[in-house]
Amino acid sequence: MRYRNIWSEVPPRKVIATPSRFRRGIGKYTVVVSDACNHCLKCVVVCPESVFRARGSKLEPPQDHLCLGIECSKKSNRCMANCPVSAIRVGVNPSVKALGDRRWTADLLMSTWRMAETGSLPKNDLEYRIGGSQGGFDRLRFAFPKRLPKPDLDKNDIDTSITLNRRNDACERIDIPIPVYGGGMSFGSISQVTMLSRIRAYAAWGSFCCTGEGGYPEILYPFDDHIITQVATGLFGVREETIQRVKIVEFKYAQGAKPGLGGHLLGDKVTPAVARIRETVPGSSLFSPFPFHSVYSVEDHKKHIDWIKTVNKRGLVSVKVSTPSDVDMVAVGSYYAGAHIVHLDGSYGGTGAAPDVAKKNIAMPIEYAIPKVHKFLVDEGIRDEICLIASGGARTAYDVAKAIALGADGVVTGTSDLVALECVRCHNCESGRGCARGIATTDAELVGLMDLEWGTRRIINMLWCWRDQLREILYRLGMRSIRELVGRTDVLAHLDYNSNVQDDDVREAIY
Amino acid sequence: MPKKYHIEVRPTPNRYPQIGRSGIVDWGEGCLKCPSCVKHECVYNVYRQRTFSAETNADTIDELCKDCFRCVQGCPKRLIHKALNPEWENLGDDVYTPEVVAANWEQAKTGKIPVSGAGYGGAFVGKGFDSMWTDMSEIVRPTRDGIHGREYISTVVDLGRRPANLRFDERGNLSTQPLPMVRVPIPVLFDIPAFGDMSSRVWHAVALAASELGTLAIIPQAEVEPLSDLRSWLVPLLETDGWDRKWIRQFRMVELADSSDTEERFDRIKRIDEGIIVSVRVPATVDAATRAWELTDHGVDIIHFVADERGYEPGVPDARHLKDVIRAQHGALVERGVRDEITVMASGGIAMAEHVIKSILCGANVVGIDLPLLLALECRLCRNCAEGGECPVRLSTIDPRWGAQRIVNLVGAWHNQCLEMMGAMGIREARRLRGEEGRVMFFEDLETDTFARLFKGREG
């Protein structure tokens, strides 16, 4: 048998069913089978979603996260009605109330898990498009025309690719087949398995994933062509060699979750491996200062970009900034300094650890920043020469599409990837040994909770479902390409301003 | 440069178990007694640490559990569930939400600023202070790196009047008399809580904390006597009588509740000693502008606008939020050309560190905090005391030294959060924060510029 090293292999882009790595998935409904069960296995036959499975002649504990709900269970041809001993009870899962938060509601978490497991949308009534924040993306809806504008469009031909280098220069021409790439999460803040799962999934999709400010571990070398390396204020692990390895280099000026604040990796997470990659001392806390103390003006900013371009002549330069009131000026400044990508990170974005006061209060939400910057770039006449990427609060395929309709070219994700890996948003990434679910930790035992192949597949599956949703949205809008959607706020409606807004669910077309 | 202001925080444990957000519900019935039970594998050792508090009749697991859901997903018989704690859901009100209350408890316990992983999980926008974001600077006009101590950010503010101009005699010497002024190292004074299981011990804790922090505590005149050792840190809220020349001269600052004879009472105090700073307590309403002008013209040192405990105009239908009151009052004083002559203090509904910064950005010089002082002492905001009932945490029986350290911890954590926000704004001086609306983004403005521009008046 040929030896395969999956750690260095770009996996195939296809959906492979990948259920929860824990004993029981969390679902909206709970199915309880009482001791009265006589193992007649009728339920196994009648359930359309394989909630009931048999091992030999015995009924296994129900896979209740797949359950379609109480209504379904009561139908005459379904489980409850067909159980001869009335042993089956279907109800709402009481634990769900304790799950999630306003931005990532329990429904959103569970529907993302579903996408990561199956590559398709939930069949029950889980909300998969919006959260419960009551503003921004959560108040925007797609206003699909009542009649399909182009019914003959073949959905499989709808183009979801975007171009990252829109300047007519000598640097790499890069198109990515989905309008999404992975945002920076450093080695140290997440485990090596998590990091590689993300990178391999984005590589499978022909897209990119950013290293974050934690250096460039050797284990990533096989994926050089799908990696964005980050140069941030601490310059941890930044060497000439790491800049030359990649096609895209990202300058991180600020992070949406903690704009204007430095980063902080607690000493506990600085293991010998992390310290080696970052060229620091194990066990000692690491601070990324704020700001770049070598950049106090737009001229300094240009000097920075020139420095990267001198070291890596073909590479694209992305500038990641957060969203102050003058974000539009910053974007224009970055363009004139020579950046290819302006990456706006909105204030509700993710982080491994940040003061709550910063996450909530500093800088504006991305939903305001995108149209502001888009309009300014259009007015300046340079919109077509820059790639505008948004992040910081894009949780779903709908958020991606809305961000693009507001004026972005594409979106960067982070939290959604971790949710695909079964993050429950408990907000304890930073405490003690780190993530109890083995995602954002460097603790040897906890890291062992996740398998690389499993993690990779979960993210590939989620992105598959996202691509399908994007295509369906474009299909209903009569667009052949996601590029047609950029800045088309006319296809959106806002619940605070528009009445008679229609439901924009595309569920039935996708599963 | 003055010595750097530093607040000495010290972990100071709770007296009672904290109310947690969610609890674990587990059934013993049907348990398989697995040799490796998920309860023993808990990453946070919650099940090993759990105890039963006879005091509150509660299982401490609700306080310890961190919601990772591993045991819920791991139990083969599915005997473990999570549920929101009803006590948590009933905690506080719409301003002092359970999250706000619990965060203040935690800060009083540890003195550390709340830090968490993952992005913000709250609403897009809210009422009052939640409808504004502070700005930050990027690339140009760099921010300040205050929290890690590399750059000095000052939170000092001055209380008192400032002359509109300086006068010089014919020989060029200054002829303007310097006006009395008290300098406090943080823009936070302690104000009188609207309710609470108060006792001399509680007042003692508040006064001790004020002295340790170098700030001032406004305290009812009747409570001042036993605290005379700490008098330099006290601001008695004067009653109409019961004080004399000698007594009042002990204090650097006093406060009067606004009434029909405020001006006369003010004159009387100033005749005793011009050096005493006099603050006048005025209900925080948008319509109080004329009164503010009168008081300013009369020479009052500080106008203290007091909103209700939730931060709204007191006793007014359709009450507006303190932030709008401050903006209106600040604007009115600017318009009259007297803003720099007077100190404006705002209190009521200042529940979190960010509210300090936001109040000052809206135009206050300094804020007063009230209920957070009690939260530091574990107050549950149940308001039993207001109805003559018993306090669930027996606030009145505290050890004043324990209480003082809890308040110091809370203010220490708030101070660091203020530094973070000021650093991000690129502002190195709390005095320069006042009315700096250019460093604020108001929800209404962003909404008008963005979504109203794009969607208003369009068919859905």
According to CATH, what is the class of the largest domain in chain B?
A: Alpha Beta
Measured by residues with Cβ under 8 Å of the partner chain's Cβ, the largest interface is: A-B, 103 and 72 residues
Strand % of chain B is 5-15%
Number of domains of chain B: 2
User: What fold name goes in the CATH topology slot of the largest domain in chain B?
Assistant: TIM Barrel
Q: What CATH architecture label of the largest domain in chain A applies?
A: Alpha-Beta Barrel
Mean pLDDT of chain A: 93
What oligomeric assembly is this protein in?
heterodimer
Ends distance of chain A: 37 Å
User: What is the CA–CA distance across the termini of chain B?
Assistant: 60 Å
Shape, per Cα inertia axes of chain A: globular
Find the CATH topology of the largest domain in chain A.
TIM Barrel
Chart the SSEs and their pairings.
The complex is a heterodimer of chains A (511) and B (460).
Chain A: E1 29-33, H1 42-46, E2 54-55, E3 58-59, H2 70-74, H3 79-82, E4 88-92, H4 106-118, E5 140-142, E6 162-163, E7 175-176, E8 180-182, H5 192-204, E9 209-210, E10 227-231, H6 240-245, E11 248-252, E12 263-265, H7 272-278, E13 286-288, H8 298-311, E14 316-321, H9 327-337, E15 341-345, E16 354-355, H10 356-361, H11 366-380, E17 387-391, H12 397-406, E18 410-413, H13 415-420, H14 444-447, H15 452-477, E19 492-494, H16 507-510
Parallel strand pairs in A: 8-18, 9-10, 10-11, 11-14, 14-15, 15-17, 17-18
Antiparallel strand pairs in A: 1-4, 2-3, 5-19, 6-7, 12-13
Chain B: E1 22-26, H1 46-49, E2 52-53, E3 58-59, H2 61-64, H3 70-74, E4 80-84, H4 86-89, H5 98-110, E5 115-116, E6 132-134, E7 157-160, E8 181-184, E9 188-190, H6 200-213, E10 217-220, H7 221-224, E11 234-237, H8 245-248, E12 253-257, H9 262-272, E13 277-283, H10 289-298, E14 302-306, H11 322-335, E15 343-347, H12 353-362, E16 366-369, H13 371-376, H14 400-425, E17 440-442, H15 443-455
Parallel strand pairs in B: 9-16, 10-11, 12-13, 13-14, 14-15, 15-16
Antiparallel strand pairs in B: 1-4, 2-3, 6-17, 7-8
Helix pairs in contact in B: 5-14, 6-14, 12-14
